[in-house]
Amino acid sequence: MNQKWDDRYKDTDFAYGTEPNLFFKEWLPKFKPGSILMPADGEGRNGVFAAKLNWSVTSFDLSTEGRLKALKLAQDNHVNLEYIVGNLEELEFEKESFDAIGLIYAHFSAETKSKLHKKLNEYLKPDGIIIFEAFSKSHLNLKKQNPKVGGPDNIDDLFSKEELQADFENYETLLLDEEEIMLDEGKFHIGKGSVIRFVGRKV
Asked: Rounded to two decimals, what is the model's pTM?
């Protein structure tokens, strides 16, 4: 898996562009800056955006190539990222140490995704915020029509609203929707996709 992402990110171009995800860009400024954890931050477009809003950002991903490009993007934007290369199953952070978590297309395997969501919950402070966007189970049909839109091929790796409600049951739901949207993010998110969008506050 590490090799897949290193191969994708070693290209000069940014796989998903350098601009932040639009949903993340819309919602993050609504909250007071603090510390934010960015799992699966890839080449850093969302972490750098958060840092430009004065968040203290800790990003991680499986890819050393992604880290190199993220740190260069941060340098070009005159901000700092703490960027760790590692797998969430093996990484440990202090409990209740983050004010927010950004989960933007953080597709974990079907066997581990709920367990990892609950692990991330432990790292979030009470009243902390999760901003989540990822492909829904309805997305598979759209990907078959247009592979350029990207996303996992296994329906069990995709999300439903019910799964999010179960994984983050101790949250006040600020938003939970399934939507079809047009994606224009680099080379690998192009076209119509079906996504789950969730914003929750830990109680």
From this structure: 0.97
